[in-house]
Amino acid sequence: MKRVTALLIAAVAGAGLLTGTATAAQRVDWKACGDKDLDAAGAQCAEVAVPLDYRQPRGRAITVAISRLKATDPGQRRGIMLSNPGGPGGPGLGLMLEVRARMSPDVQARYDLIGMDPRGIGRSTPVNCDWPVGNMLRSAGLDRAAFERNARLEAELARRCADTQGETIRHITTRNTARDMDLIRAALGEPKISYLGYSYGTYLGSVYTQLFPHRSDRIVLDSAVDSKRYPGEMIQDMGPANEQALDDWANWAAGQHAEYRLGRTGKQVRALVEDLIRQAARQPIRIGDFRVDEHVLPMVLFDGLADVRENAEFAGSIRQLADAAAGKTVRPNQALERVLGMHYLKYPQAQQSGMAALMCGDASSRRNPERYWRDIQRSRTRQPVFGPMANNLNACAFWAPPVEPPVIVRNPVPALIVQATGDTRTVYDSGVDLHRAMSGSRLVTLQDVRTHSVFGFYPNTCVENAVNTYLRDGLLPGRDLTCRGD
Predict the structure, then answer these.
(1) In this protein, which residues make up the domain named Peptidase S33 tripeptidyl aminopeptidase-like C-terminal (predicted)?
(2) Extents of the domains making up the chain
(3) How confident is the model at residue 350, as a pLDDT?
(4) Is 292 helix (H, G, I), strand (E, B) or coil?
């Protein structure tokens, strides 16, 4: 068993837990990444040894994989910028390849851009619980029998993680990932880190600022998570946001009735969608290699509503599902094939037990199924499609208690928070609340746009100027800023 023999503990606080800085004498050995895109871009990769349990820093070690795109001008280099794509549980080695095109040349000149597969994910001692499904987030279904069937599955998912991963999985947490980031900083010989995080990655980034405020340099948090509502209430917040998004999309689709034949009014389109769920409850809809049931179909809808630019593609997917429900032989389009393949484990990377490890290990969840059932029933009137998803129990209800309490972020560390008002995953109010909790931050609002993850993913000159100015000069806007769609 490998051990971290090169750690020099610099600060220990609270019941013997390591919460301060660790420096590493370990040598970081950069080499080719073995990934076509990263290697073509000239990136290098390395592994950094970190303690599995920071309370036992000389105990078992695991490795965290990182990538590096060097600053383009060593004379202007400021330091390193770590990153996280969200998830929770998203691999991030290649994230900066996607994002750097929207970074101005002088920002690219200043930073070594560091991608990272967080602990338990991708190349970083990955969690694999041998699940029979891809994702623990599912809809409860239409009736009590469906709810109980799903609850049994969620209990089975938690049991498999406990059986296959043992104590290891209890240390796959955001708090420990933030500690890993600080150890990476030390191993690279840097006094501070800058950071760019999306979605769940904003929680990770804000947790880092809470644990290591004096090591935090320029912090950008895009599509932000409110630490007080993560993870359970964060999911509940998705219900109303996605119902509104469904109405917006349905009105759009009604205007395209000649092409998609989903209904001439928004109400008719919504009625068709709700009827598809009822049909899937009576008998799963066969489409291609998949049988889509009432637990997964709302997740397909959730995926399709994330970005307004996907309206047409999503309408095509719903048309295909409606045709399949009518008994036609249908091969799913690329978007539908992708989302169903993730839920039904068609792809090797589809199993999301790493997400469960983080969400369930970060904070305790309610245990009593009756409380979930009552919340689901109360939600059905106003949230007929997404209430049974957003209020449903998941594997966390059957998980072992967290090793440490959740991190509640409240600090004056400067940061730039970017949030779209139409975000269906991390709702707008969560960005507002994180802005209040981080008193040194500024909020950039992308007004009246339905999208999730903005900088580098949703082109917007106003947002890009604000982010690039801050990363280049360290200058936050003088006041909160509202951007409109280009």
Answers:
(1) 384-483
(2) 7-130+168-230+408-483, 144-165+238-398
(3) 85
(4) strand
